[in-house]
Fold each of these.
Amino acid sequence: MPGGANDTELFWQLLVQGRDVHTTVPPDRFDLDAHFDPTGKLENSTDTPYGNFIDHPGQFDPGFFNMSPRENRNAGLVFETTPWLKQEGKKRYAIVNSFGAHGGNTTLLLEDAPEKLTAKTTLSDHIKTHIIAISAKSKASLRGNIEDLLAYLDQATPENNLLGNISYTLVARRIHHSRRIAASVSNIDQLREFLKSSLETSDDSIWADMALTIGKHLYKRLNPGAEEVDMNISNVEVLESQIPHNYNSVNVKPQLIQVEGDIDLAEASTEISWYTLTADGNRSDHAFASATVYYEDAKVWQAQMVYQLFQNVVDYADRYQGMQSVVLHGLEAFAEVELVADHHGSWHTPPHWIDSVFQMAGFVMNSSDITNTREFFYITPGWQELRLAKPLEAGQSYQSYVHMFPSEEEPNTFLGDIYALQAGNIVGVCEGIKFRKIPRVLMSHLFSGGSKQPQPSHVPPEKRGGVQAHAEGRIMPVKRVQSSHKPAAIHTHESPQPSPVSHHIPDLSPASLPDQTPKTTPTLEVTTKGQDIEAKQQPEVVIKCLGLLARETGIDVKDFTDDASFNEMGIDSLMSLVLSEKLLREVGVEVKSSTFLECPTVGEFTEWLTQYH
């Protein structure tokens, strides 16, 4: 016996104590090298070299278990394929124990093994019903799984036990997700009918129709004079799918549903719940679906939806949101516009009125599905002419039309004319409005006047930027303070002074720089691609910048030699913009994208960093 347990007392002590008596496979049993496969993928293989083995099978007889001769007739050890004879009218029983094989101790009680199938008999003749269960993490995935199975049934060749194989594949050792359907079927036709009916109910539009019907009915009961009822069906949750019965079948049972609505005019809403009913009218304890209907003004959310499409570039204040509805097709659009009643100041023509009437061009360029708004945004530098045939009036309705087209003379530029109409007459026109395509990575640079962009920590306060944003969002010039440091004669030429409102690098000419010695670090470890690379003696700012360039380009820092070319590394104009933005945000170094053109090699770039930072 395993572990030297040569009698029942020792054997049960091993089981009670849980002792590990695993040993490797005895060489005389079988060739372990030929059958051992730790992955368990090979046929007729074992994934472990250990097990519990009977040393002397002859000792493991009925006498070992102190069995009586009568018990001896019904017990035995199976060491080879053994027929299991059946007596007429009697059931057969068997106990199979793993005896701790593979670390387990499993016992199975088998009752009357199935009959051997003849050539004319299939498993389907014995098993009349099969469970079919399909599940997925989402409603769309569940529908896809159902459609895939239907497609498989249409092309599958008839075979023995096709339904049983499908049932085993869908049920055995499967993780069943929250979205699921299940049924018991007896043949392929029933399975196909079940799947098709499931697809018919996978759309929740039937619940939406019920919610709209009940919501409108309850609202008009309390407000009989209401003509139109604008509703928003929210928080819809179907916990249990409802599979409709096939009413072409014989003896089909009625399928009853009860819908309950509870209206609250104070909250302008109705709570709706769905229940199942039995044939005798008993309602289920819990609702299988629920929803909330809110009563609201459709014009309000229609206008809001229009400007939500615009939010990828700019947020509009309420008084600028004059467009009530928009029809958009490519680079052409038509809008209904309603001006707000308030002037919001003393104006000849309030700017929020002008913008509402003539903002369609910007909407088209920044909302159309053909202008690649993921990577670019569009801004206007101006227009040629703007005319109004009559003054714009508060609270009046207008129509706006625009058609934009690419410019043949200027690349990355679009042109167009915007027309304002009222009662079918043209009352205003904006001719030759121009929009330019700008990489989205530049947005923070172009619109950073009122935002809190990071400033390089190494630049003196008097050199940080040329503008100052006030609380009201107005941008005021800032007087520059001349440095008290003496010029350092490094170059033989003079660098031009930047304009007071420049958003780019402050004046970096030698004459304006403080007399500072770059901070150096004797040795600094730079980690790139999982490797520790020892950098040469360089200023810390250089090491940080090169580390960022290596990370963004995917090039090892060791390859950033002095003669390495940025152009050969793939740093083009777009990559330069990205690197410029990230160097400012992560390292605090303000680098113009053109610097990679002015300093085309790593050596020139590091020299520029060392000298000016």
Amino acid sequence: MSRSWGMAFATLISRLTGFARIVLLAAILGAALSSSFSVANQLPNLVAALVLEATFTAIFVPVLARAERTTPTAAPRSYGDW
């Protein structure tokens, strides 16, 4: 339970510092320039995430399907064993 609270607290701090960053950018650069900066900063990350997700799906789904075909009864247990 204490780990859950720790993660919740870390997430809260992350959200608050992210909000402070956005407010400071808008205050320093102005709203229009801040928006342009945000788009230019987030666009490469978005493209990378889309490419990586597509690659991950293309690789992982066939491996999962093959594992389920070969041992259908053991597959659910092996997926849950972290």
